[in-house]
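Hi P.,

Sorry for the delay on this. The queue was packed all week, but I finally got your sequence through. Input first:
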Amino acid sequence: MADLTATVANGTTEWAARLLVAGLEPSLDHAITVNGSNQPIARVLFAFEPGMPDDMRTALVEGISQALADAL
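Then the structure:
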């Protein structure tokens, strides 16, 4: 379990660093979960330009969510 924890922590740190370098901030309020028969099979997390209004963020996530639903 310790190896998995270290792997996840390292990957998370790299992901967060790339977002910061790109000038984006991760959102804790916006995510899309794709469910399988009994469990999640994928999750899309979002990071936005800091000045993007919340309603625009929500509209973007809703649009992507609808496109995923239509494709599945």
